[in-house]
Amino acid sequence: MPQYWWVNHKQTVRQEIGGGYLWSPKQENNGARSQFYENMRIANPGDVVLSFANTWIRHVGVVEAHCVTAPKPGHFGASGAYWAQDGWWLPIRWTPLSQPVRPRDLADELAPLLPRKHSPFNAIRGTGNQKAYLARVERAVIETILGRAGLALEAVQAGENRSFEQLVEALDDEAERAITQDLTIAETERLEQVKARRGQGRFRANVSVMEKACRITGISNPDLLTASHIKPWRSCTTGTERLDGNNGLMLVPHIDRLFDRGLISFQDDGRILVSPLLAFADVQRLGLTSALEESVGLFTSGQAVYLKYHREFVFLREDRPEARVRFKAP
């Protein structure tokens, strides 16, 4: 069943609607946890989102894929200048409302429908609540707004989403542009950092020194292995991270895909974590049931730094329920 959301994004509405996404920091500036930011990880493909900015709801969107860790978009400019650089990026397929809705005009109808805790909107003042970003709301809130706009919820949910590959490619393209335009980096170094995006060049050489085979399948033929970043290439903050052999694993393509998508991860001692979003039937079809019951071997302290990042920010935990250590059939 889809979930329903309301986002307050006055500062960045132009960029986020135009770019087809939502972006938030991972925590408050003081390091405190924010449920509004955590909700970025809880949102699922097919969920419906209302866009609220400057007292109006002018767009409604559908979540296209689970959020990924990504740098703050460069085109934010001065907007959110105080936010951290590392955050959550949630792809949204936005639809403009032919009849925009001002929620304050529906305050009496909305008031009993809004959540008591973590509400995005103050029905008394008719304004968005301070610090509220992505907030969960009831289906009735969505239907009330869309009803005033003359748009059926089913019409919003219909439509074709962009593929996950298209979405991530766009993020990586932006990170690559930032590198190629950074003239403080030597040209040869810029080239190596760009090659690392595809698991090539010095990065692959550095990883292959440490990892001789795929950790799960045991395949060691270099022609069948991909040098995969543990901390995603786009999220690396320095060239050192992008090229560090500790920040990579040699994986066969289907394992690389599972790892990049956050459907599996690893404990430092080699135990495999499987996301609750990976169906047992798919594990069976991939022939991985027995392999996922075994340890893949210890990781080094250098690798452990990057694996911690992967477990916390890439792995689809679904706190979504707790992830399973190794894999057990239901």
Domain count: the total is 2
Strand residue content: 15-25%
* CA-based gyration radius: 21 Å
**How many H/I helices?**
12
What's the CATH architecture of the largest domain?
Roll
Q: What class, by secondary structure content?
A: alpha+beta
* Sheet with the most strands, sense and barrel status: 7 strands, mixed
- Percentage of helical residues? 25-40%
Return residue spans where pLDDT drops below 50 for at least 5 consecutive residues: 320-330
**H/E element order:** EHEHEEEEHEEEHHHHHEHEHEEHHE
β-strand number: 14
The CATH class of the largest domain is Alpha Beta
Question: Termini separation (Å)?
Answer: 21 Å
How would you state the average pLDDT, rounded? 93
The CATH topology of the largest domain is given as ph1033 like fold
Shape, principal axes of CA atoms: globular
Report on this model:
This protein has helices spanning 13-19, 35-42, 107-110, 139-149, 153-157, 164-180, 187-197, 201-210, 239-243, 253-260, 280-285, 301-313; strands spanning 4-8, 21-25, 48-53, 56-63, 68-71, 86-101, 121-122, 127-128, 134-137, 226-229, 248-251, 264-266, 272-274, 324-325. It is built from twelve helices and 14 strands. The protein is an alpha+beta fold and 330 residues long. The model is unreliable at 320-330 (pLDDT under 50). The chain has two domains: 4-160, ph1033 like fold, CATH 3.10.590; 165-314, no CATH class. Strands 1, 2, 3, 4, 5, 6 and 9 form a seven-stranded mixed sheet that branches. The radius of gyration is 21 Å and the shape is globular. Keywords: Endonuclease, Hydrolase, Nuclease.
